[in-house]
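Q: Convert this sequence to structure tokens.
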Amino acid sequence: MVFKRIKTNEIKAETLDQFYDEIRMRDEDGQPLAYIDYGKFRLEFRRASLRRNHVEVDVKVYVQE
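A:
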């Protein structure tokens, strides 16, 4: 199996499964966390759990300067 190299940690998912996978594959020691920029805020995600119709995740919010 061949995997594409991750070029950015910004989440670009189009489905719930992709969103979960993007967080999960970056949630390792030494890896930058997956994030979404929302206006002046950056939301970093870790410890994702895929449920039937949603993803539960820990989020840390920063103000970007």
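The beta strands are 34-38, 41-50, 55-63.
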